[in-house]
Amino acid sequence: MDKAAKPETCNGANAVSENSAPGRSSGNMGFTHSLEGRKERRLLIAIVVRLAQARAAPSGIEERTYTENVSAHGACVMSKRPWQTGEEAKVTSLKDGIPLCGKVVHCERIEDDKFYVGLNFQEQQVTWSSFSRYDGA
Predict the structure, then answer these.
(1) Element (H, E) at 62
(2) For the whole model, what pTM was predicted?
(3) pLDDT tens per residue, range 6-27
(4) Number of domains in the chain
(5) For the domain that residue 38 is a member of, what is the CATH number?
(6) How far apart are the first and last CA of the chain?
(7) Angle formed at CA 104 by CA 39 and CA 128, multiple of 5 degrees
């Protein structure tokens, strides 16, 4: 695959607070079963996406997964592997093909091989059509 041969990078998606504790949010995207108390409204919506490391190596693994919830500048995505706080990820809507790059602000194990990964798209706004349709944007 040609796409895997080139390292992918995400520009402008690096403004997450470094003061947050591991596994906890700096504000916008900490995992919680409640969707209240956030700066941005979150929608419980499953959008099928491709999740990959932003700076993928030639053998970079990309997984097909889905969102748990989405806000204007973040998403909680299901993953098969643990992610490190601060790690950069690229999330691409399969429907639209629109990639968004962000930083991991939390990762919570929910089963042996399932993790909720909270991503903050600080410099970008979610423009996926599935989100816009329900958000009224």
Answers:
(1) strand 62-71
(2) 0.70
(3) 333 454 333 333 333 333 333 3
(4) 1
(5) 2.40.10.220
(6) 35
(7) 65
